[in-house]
Design goal:
It is a single chain. The protein is an alpha+beta fold. Helix content is about 45%, strand content about 15%. The protein is built from 4 helices and 3 strands; from the N terminus they run E-H-E-E-H-H-H. A 3-stranded antiparallel sheet has the order 1-3-2. The longest helix is centred in the C-terminal third of the chain and has 15 residues. It starts with a strand and ends with a helix.
Length: about 120
């Protein structure tokens, strides 16, 4: 299973929802869509989620920009609303993995594993 869909429960309190996202991450599921439901994708990394309802201000925007620079998130990783786009990040990760892999040095089995990994990122 590549994706897991969870109907959104509005009864979640912020802290409970944050804990839920973090637990899902520990189980190998990365949150990649929020709408009327949550969509999670298989991911080997563990992420730390935090819900933040800070009103937009120039000070807050400056803080986010500093965090963005520290974490290497480029403005190209954001959609038109300025939100981080998981789809764009996955595309960049996919391209980066391809660039960093010397396919000529991989065995047949390693090539198959590499292609499976790339396929998972592309979904």
């Amino acid at each position: 299973m590549k994706h897991k869909y969870v109907l959104r429960n509005s009864l979640y309190l912020d802290e409970e929802l944050q804990d839920y996202f973090n637990e899902m991450s520990k189980k190998g599921w990365r949150l990649d869509f929020i709408g009327y439901y949550y969509r999670f994708s298989k991911d080997e990394h563990v992420y730390k989620y935090q819900i933040d309802y800070t009103p937009v201000s120039s000070e807050y925007q400056e803080l986010l920009k500093e965090m963005e620079n520290e974490n290497s998130l480029k403005s190209a990783d954001r959609n038109d609303d300025g939100q981080i786009s998981f789809e764009i990040l996955n595309r960049d990760i996919l391209a980066d993995r391809i660039r960093k892999t010397n396919v000529d040095e991989l065995s047949d089995e390693e090539c198959r594993e590499f292609l499976k990994e790339l396929s998972g990122l592309a979904d």
